[in-house]
Design a protein that fits this description.
Elements lengths: L3 E5 L33 E8 L6 H12 L5 E6 L6 H14 L4 E5 L13 E7 L2 H7 L8 H11 E6 L3 H8 L8 H8 L13 H10 L1 H23 L1
Parallel strand pairs: 1-3, 2-4, 2-5, 3-4, 5-6
Length: about 240
């Protein structure tokens, strides 16, 4: 299959998240669960709105390696991280023109409430320990924690963990896009772009943890949800 389509648009990785208007989310606890939101989604389309420095090269290679065997295409788009309504509508239109069959939309962009556009794809993503991500790349905005939890719990079928990449693939194997992912990863050593970083002192680590408290809270929420999903899957 011609499994990769690539579209280049303006790509400004430094767009400020603070300029994006955020809806009000009630300040009530959002608890991670094993709830599977996939049943309410259009299984023909999977959106991987990858996060910078969070294993995207590895995940993209796994997706690419499995596209022929699992009969889907991958659509790679390079555009602004923050999309306006017209850009979203244009991209959805392009994707639906490409195929009505299985397709992975692979791109760096902030969460989009696709239901507003009569488009309801499956969401998935992978994150990384914020302290390690900070060492590798400057941190993105740490705002909108409550909204991020809400989106993750209600919209994302799986949010994997770079540090638990093998188990991430185990969870993703429940979706036809990733059938055989664990075997492919093991056989092909799919993890790419693993660059060792100088070991940091405990003082530096503690300083980063202080500065990344909100990121760590979101990361720990995702880890708890990940472990609950993994435990649930293994009990089946």
């Amino acid at each position: 299959m011609d499994n990769i389509s690539s579209v280049n648009r303006t790509n400004d990785s430094h767009q400020p998240l603070l300029n994006i208007p955020l809806p009000i989310v009630p300040e009530v606890p959002i608890l991670p669960s094993s709830h599977n939101v996939t049943k309410s989604k259009e299984s023909s389309y999977l959106v991987y709105n990858r996060v910078l420095k969070c294993g995207s090269s590895s995940v993209t290679k796994v997706i690419n390696d499995l596209s022929d065997e699992n009969e889907f295409d991958m659509y790679v788009v390079h555009q602004n991280h923050a999309l306006d309504d017209q850009e979203i509508q244009d991209l959805i239109g392009q994707i639906q023109l490409l195929t009505q069959d299985k397709l992975v939309w692979n791109s760096h962009f902030y969460y989009v409430e696709f239901k507003k556009f009569n488009f309801n794809p499956i969401y998935m993503n992978v994150v990384r320990d914020p302290v390690q991500r900070m060492i590798s790349k400057e941190i993105h905005s740490i705002d909108a924690l409550q909204l991020a939890k809400k989106h993750i719990e209600e919209e994302y079928s799986v949010v994997g963990i770079v540090e638990e990449f093998a188990n991430t693939l185990l969870l993703l194997e429940h979706y036809s896009y990733f059938k055989g992912a664990s075997t492919a990863y093991s056989e092909n050593n799919s993890r790419e772009n693993v660059n060792p970083h100088p070991e940091q002192s405990e003082k530096v680590i503690q300083k980063l943890k202080q500065e990344l408290q909100i990121d760590l809270e979101l990361y720990n929420f995702i880890v708890k949800r990940f472990n609950v999903q993994l435990q649930h899957m293994k009990s089946l």
